[in-house]
């Protein structure tokens, strides 16, 4: 994440008073291909089984964005590798 300066957080209202917005508010990302809650649950369970010394309990938004991007790339490569005959992608 980049640097955030206090000047960037100030907004001028119509009555000339300045208000500070919270720097951590970002619009939620809508995922088209993955179910974020199921992806989070699976990642935490997998981490618990594979790396029991670590106590992972949360999944970042960046992790979910990477999952979505990897799934899109996987589907694209499967479609491109599929033969041109037939009607069903296998």
Record the SSE blueprint:
Elements: H1 6-9, E1 10-12, E2 18-20, H2 36-50, H3 61-81
Antiparallel strand pairs: 1-2
Summary, kept brief:
The chain is mainly alpha-helical. Helix content is 44%, strand content 7%. Strand 1 (10-12) and strand 2 (18-20) form a beta hairpin.
Strand order of the largest sheet: 1-2
Overall SS class: mainly alpha
Please give the largest β-sheet. 2 strands, antiparallel
Secondary-structure element series: HEEHH
Mean pLDDT: 81
Strand residue content: 5-15%
State the end-to-end distance: 40 Å
Poorly predicted regions? 1-13
Structure description:
The protein has a domain at 26-81. It is built from three helices and two strands, in the order H-E-E-H-H. It has helices at residues 6-9, 36-50, 61-81, and strands at 10-12, 18-20. Strands 1-2 form a two-stranded antiparallel sheet. Strand 1 and strand 2 form a beta hairpin. The longest helix has 21 residues, at 61-81.
């Amino acid at each position: 994440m980049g640097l955030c300066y206090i000047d960037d957080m100030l907004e001028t209202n119509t009555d000339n008073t300045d208000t500070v917005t919270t720097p951590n508010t970002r619009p939620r990302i809508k995922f088209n291909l993955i179910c974020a809650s199921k992806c989070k649950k699976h990642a935490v369970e997998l981490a618990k089984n594979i790396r029991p010394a670590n106590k992972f309990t949360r999944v970042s938004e960046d992790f979910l964005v990477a999952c979505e991007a990897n799934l899109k790339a996987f589907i694209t490569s499967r479609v491109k590798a599929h033969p041109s005959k037939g009607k069903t992608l296998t």
